[in-house]
Amino acid sequence: MKVMLSQLEARLASLSTPVLVQLPAGQWIGPEDAPVRLRVRSALALPFLTDGQIGSLGTAIVEGQVDVEGTMRDVMDAAAGLLDGEDPLKPQPGRWTSAVGKMRSMAMHTLVRDAQQIEFHYDLSDDFYALWLDPRRVYSCAYYRDPGMTLARAQEAKLDHICRKLQLQPGERFLDIGAGWGGLLLWAAEHYGVEAHGITLSHNQYHHVQQLIAQKGLQGRVHVELCDYRQKSAADPFDKVASVGMFEHVGRANMPEYFQTVKKLLRPGGMALIHGITAGGVDNHELGAGMGEFIGRYIFPGGELLHVSTVLHDMAGSGLEMVDTENLRPHYARTLWSWSDALEAQLTQAAQILQQQVAPERADKALRAYRLYLAGCAMGFERGWMALYQMLVIHPDGDLRQGKLRGAQSAYPFQRDYMYR
Asked: What does the sequence similarity comment in the record state about its family (predicted)?
């Protein structure tokens, strides 16, 4: 124990953001005026501080073994300092390429398991999410086209950015795979005159979108289904397809099938916009230092992060052609800090909502987990541990591989001017 305490003192002394730690026996280590305070209730959590396992430290906080005080920005600065050389992007070779890894990924992403995993996250509580999301409840990276934009304006800019990239036209049939609370569906219908279809596995989101459709009188132009992407009929393909914040839930083993499904659902010559979180490292299947395990346990069970090169590989393998890719990583860092700040400003109300709407054994843990998750992901995007890509693809009208007479045709102009007019 003396050796561990000596290591802890040395680690705390090295931090640029000071931390004061109370040990289980009651003594304190660190400067008294530190902006971050940790009360360690269990000695089992001490190695997480000395070894830089900040994901495991987060687990200890969620489980009540450690209490934390301080702003989330200070807490995350301190957490980054605790890493002390531990690489969150440390390669994990063979995890996906091995037969065992592929079987594990497939087992995590059956129709039944995926439905359960989506329900765990997205059906937590609509009122809880409404506290810290924008009024449209757009639960994905915003687009700060102008630096002075509010979160709400930046989310509208993101919705419009997607619609512009897809060149949506009145009367086109548009599909949103993983439609969330309906922000993109309704924006596309109201501002671009499309016939919008959405699918989701979240019961809460499904009912919310149905209510919005009725309130806005859009029953004939906007439709939503409770449906897995693998179950969506491709009998009548769509002109345009979007999938926003969705492929993170698909799993490495199912990515080829996912892109093959996107292609089947998209008419030849049509365009799709794939928007999702990717790994910052080429060979890490999740964030290291215990952070990936934390997110999988408390936030996104079954979630898998792929490097953008892997995503593009599987996309090309399906016969889709990538025509434009844009990295919005800094935009997601700012989005997540906006969400985190909004939640931190309403912690009492958030706790009341969860206690009323969530099973008692999960309510307190969920709030502690989301506080760490939102701020931790903001830090992760700032530091390049994760990225956010929008990939615009076409379903070629012709055969890319056989060189048939028509070749690869589409409506895409192969220049970006139209996106920014």
From this structure: Belongs to the CFA/CMAS family.
